[in-house]
Design brief:
With 242 residues, the chain is α+β, with helices and mostly antiparallel strands. It folds into 2 domains: 117 residues, 2-Layer Sandwich (Mago nashi protein); 59 residues, no CATH class.
């Protein structure tokens, strides 16, 4: 009689031992789930807010071969340049990125001017409008200011305008040389003469940005040999410079 009772009890105990881990595991899974409607916690990202300040330089003289230049860029030195040839209605627009050295000089001058906080008129008492008019524009999203002058005795404002002019001259050379390589290879020697002249008078924003282009030109059989050799000479001068 006892044996008959013991066997069913033993069977139930073994069954319970086999089934219980599954129930316990399922219960644990349920406890690990977020409650209905809950979302996983969002990881905080300590990212510095981007500087939304925009900078702009303009030059205009309707009788010059390049009658208008506009450079727009952000706080990282990235933006675009547009320039218009005399009597052309449609400007040429190209992307532009300032080099690290140019960024340091240009933003240093903007900072020294305290441009948005200043009301200074940079225009000299003398008028040299026949040499072209410059505009400096800054917009930080809350304030915007434009300063216009054709000659200035403020060395910081004048140097800033000249820094941008170097950026423009270098970018225009790159565009003109690319056009010459594709369509007018006989123009390449003259363009390289202009480049060397700009290099000698410190008229380039950052000559080292031109190294990849000059390397290509020195082996480009689409342009005259004299131009290839000239590109190689300029390249060596730039590479040897400190």
């Amino acid at each position: 009689m006892q044996l008959k009772v013991f066997r069913p009890c033993l069977f139930l105990m073994l069954l319970f031992a086999a089934v219980w881990p599954a129930f316990a595991q399922e219960d644990t899974k349920k406890n690990d789930r977020p409650p209905d409607g809950a979302t996983a916690p969002v990881r905080e990202q300590n990212q510095k807010q981007a500087d939304e300040t925009r900078y702009q330089y303009e030059f205009a003289q309707k009788d010059f071969v390049i009658s208008q230049i506009v450079i727009k860029h952000d706080a990282l030195g990235r933006g675009e340049i547009s320039f218009r040839h005399k009597n052309d209605e449609t400007p040429i627009v190209e992307p532009i990125e300032l080099s690290t050295g140019a960024i340091g000089r240009i933003f240093g001058l903007w900072s020294k001017l305290r441009f948005l906080d200043s009301t200074e008129d940079y225009q000299s008492s003398k008028n040299f409008a026949h040499l072209g008019t410059y505009k400096l524009i800054m917009d930080d999203g809350k304030r915007q200011r434009t300063a216009e002058f054709n000659w200035s005795h403020n060395p910081i404002a004048w140097n800033l305008a000249q820094e941008y002019r170097r950026v423009a001259d270098q970018a225009i050379f790159i565009f003109d040389m690319n056009v010459a390589r594709e369509n007018q290879p006989l123009n390449a020697p003259g363009l390289l003469n202009q480049l060397e002249s700009m290099y000698k008078r410190n008229g380039l924003s950052d000559p080292r940005q031109l190294v990849p282009l000059l390397q290509e030109l020195s082996t480009d059989e689409h342009i005259p040999l004299i131009a290839r050799n000239h590109a190689d000479r300029i390249l060596k001068k730039i590479e040897k410079s400190p």
